[in-house]
Amino acid sequence: MPRPHRRLASTCIGTVTAGLLATGAALAAPEKEQPKGSDIAMGAFLDSGQTGVARIPQLSRWLGGKEIRVGHTYLPGDRWARIENPDFLEAWAQWRRARPERLFVLNVPMQEHNEDHVPDREVARLIRAGAEGEFDHHFEQLAHKLVELGVPDTVIVLGWEMNGATYTHRCAPDPEGWKEYWNRIVNTMRSVPGQEFKFDFAPNRGSDAIGWTACYPGDDVVDIVGMDSYDQAPGKTFDEMVKQPYGLQKHVDFAKAHGKAISYPEWGLFRHGDNPTYVQRMLKWIEQHKPLYHTITDYCPHGVWQCKQNPRSAKAFRAALAPERPGPVPTPVIPTPVVPTPVIPTPVVPTPVLPTPSVPTPQIPTPVVPTPGIPVPSPVVPSPQIPSPVPSPETPVTSPSPEPAPEPVPEPVPSPALPSPAVPSPEVPAPAPEPVPVSPEPVEPSPQVPAPESPSPEPVPEPVPSPAVPSPQTPVGPGTGPSPDPVPVPLPEPSPVLPPVPDPDPVVPKPEPPANSTEWCVPVNFGEWLSKLVGRQSVCVKVDWGKDSGFWPW
């Protein structure tokens, strides 16, 4: 089958170091829950040498952590020296030894100049030379190399696609000689002590240049019957690839008939481009028939990971092989134990009973209803101490005396008279109390309860009405001394005043009209007791008759 020179892609690859291999092995994601077919070893051809080993863990991550169990590479078929002693096998051997379940698959050419398009006549000559043992020492050397590297169980795909027309190790120029040559190579390599090799007979799907069953060398020298199957003719659909002569079904049936395991060392896209249906059907076929291993050829145009021109096939590949993510595990509902809350009695703290302070109620003397002929003492309103006395404009200021003030004597109350507009008669002034010395700092007055005063036994003369009209603006005080500014004092509720007994012979003074005056003032008498509180008052009426009227109404 025509192919690009994929086997010579890594002709100048050096020996890999052990440290890099260990790193590559460590990068592989651990295997988690796998989808169906997880028991089938899966791999990919990623590169022949060190690069191919390093890409294995990257492919594993791309597949969601699926373990890549197959490492697959090819020996260069250009010269015998590179076939018998390749310089990159140590890297693959170290990868294989890292885990016992891994599988190392190595494609081994049967001739040098394997892809140089050698003609059939030369191919036939080389087959006969090989069958006679001319090239045995090359394969013996290779067997020793693999055993020394610790990979004696390598799967050797010897003379792959021998039914085609491409490689120098093809079978069609001399099928019988070819089968004899195969037997000689297998027996030579099995003669090396310590070997456990498995030889894989892997033709190309279809008849190609010759039916591949004609090249089968025998059951004693074949361990696995493989097949390379790309998406190309013969066959346009996957069903045609299955049913065609020497197709997929023939491969399965032949291996079963010979009691051999099957494999798919190479498969992938090709002539039909990005074809996810082929990828899905091929993976389903693999799952159904359980090969020992399968490896996809992952470079363009065949691949799905490194080749970006097949995105739909890549998606199908990942969907089929990526591990299934387990669904969310339901969290078991664990009932919370109900712990009874201990009831702690609240300590009863007795509330201290604080005694209510008793505020003494000031005793306010009840006003006495005046009785005719009996003098009534006037209530004494305590005067608060003030910083300095304010002299009245009508009374001369007296100097304060250092002696203490005598007890105030209540003013005599005249006999009650009927209220009339008569002019009040002048009252007999009572002796004024001596002024109290002023403290240098103002002291807030303390409420004092006035002590009851005893009435004076001396008779008070009857007031004589005077024709003169006193000035109504100046109230008459209890003394002749300076009067302090009045301080608001709570007044007691007045008791109902009984009507006075009328005088049998009252003297009603008649006001004299002022001489040609426009203002008339009439004093108002509120009674002796109330007059003491509010002072003497008068009502004045002013009438303007004009300057030259000379009119007088009376």
Produce the secondary structure layout:
Blueprint: H1 18-27, E1 41-45, H2 50-62, E2 70-74, H3 80-84, H4 89-97, E3 103-108, H5 120-131, H6 136-148, E4 155-158, H7 175-190, E5 198-201, E6 224-226, E7 229-230, H8 238-243, H9 248-257, E8 261-268, H10 276-289, E9 293-297, H11 311-321, E10 519-524, H12 528-534, E11 537-542
Parallel strand pairs: 1-2, 1-9, 2-3, 3-4, 4-5, 5-6, 6-8, 7-8, 8-9
Antiparallel strand pairs: 10-11
Helix pairs in contact: 1-2, 1-4, 5-7, 6-7, 10-11
Concise account of the structure shown:
The protein has 554 residues and is of the alpha/beta class.
What does this structure look like?
With 554 residues, this protein is an alpha/beta fold. The chain contains twelve helices and eleven strands. Strands 1-2-3-4-5-6-8-9 form an eight-stranded parallel beta barrel. Strands 10-11 form a two-stranded antiparallel ribbon. Helix 7 links the parallel strand 4 (155-158) and strand 5. Helix 6 packs parallel to helix 7 and helix 10 (276-289) packs parallel to helix 11 (311-321). The chain is rod-shaped. The N and C termini lie far apart (161 Å). The relative contact order is 0.08. Residues 4-37, 386-461 and 463-484 have low confidence and may be disordered.
Order of helical and strand elements: HEHEHHEHHEHEEEHHEHEHEHE
Largest β sheet strand count, sense and barrel closure: 8 strands, parallel, barrel
Strands, total number: 11
Which word captures the global form?
Answer: rod-shaped
Q: Residue ranges: pLDDT <50 for 5 or more in a row? A: 4-37, 386-461, 463-484
Strand percentage lies at 5-15%
Strand order of the largest sheet: 1-2-3-4-5-6-8-9
Mean pLDDT: 74
Oligomer classification: single chain
Specify the helix fraction band: 10-25%
Report how far apart the termini are: 161 Å
Helical region count?
12
Structural class computed from helices and strand pairing: alpha/beta
Radius of gyration: 70 Å
